[in-house]
Amino acid sequence: PGILMGGVLPVGSVFIQLYFIFNSIWAHQIYYMFWFLFIVFLILVITCAETTILLCYFHLCSEDYHWWWRAYLSSGSTALYFFLYSIYFYAERLQMEGAASLFIFFGYTFIMAIYFFLLTGFVGFMSCFVFINKIYSVVKTD
After folding, report:
1. Within 10 A of 25 (CB to CB), how many other CB atoms are there?
2. Distance (Å, rounded) from C-alpha 74 to C-alpha 2?
3. Distance CA 75, CA 110 (A)
4. CA distance linking residue 86 with residue 126, whole number of Å
5. What is the pLDDT along the chain (142 residues), one digit of tens a residue?
6. This prediction's pTM
């Protein structure tokens, strides 16, 4: 449950932009706010880093030192919510019919979700790695 909770806040920060991006890709509308998309991307990176560090810190406080994959998966679980939103978008917003458009939509969206998983997982893992190196570098052992 902790791994799945790590993706709620980051996808909440980019939720509105997902609607506009999906509209520009699948509904043939023009997306013209790239500067705002960059700001939202920075917010996504910061949110992924902060939530993963917080969850990792809670596990370290309970003396659970297996943080490597948990840090990657908790931040990468944002891609699961991304894919769930794409299912909602397909069912409610698009009027595509036929098996070919279904396979094309979900095939490309699955590839985007994999890239999103790799990106957010990397951000979460590296932020936890830097955080843990920092907190353990200041521990004095005599």
Report:
1. 14
2. 7
3. 17
4. 27
5. 778 888 899 999 998 898 888 888 888 888 888 899 999 999 999 999 999 999 999 989 988 888 889 999 999 999 999 999 999 999 988 888 889 999 999 999 999 999 999 999 999 999 999 999 999 898 877 6
6. 0.89
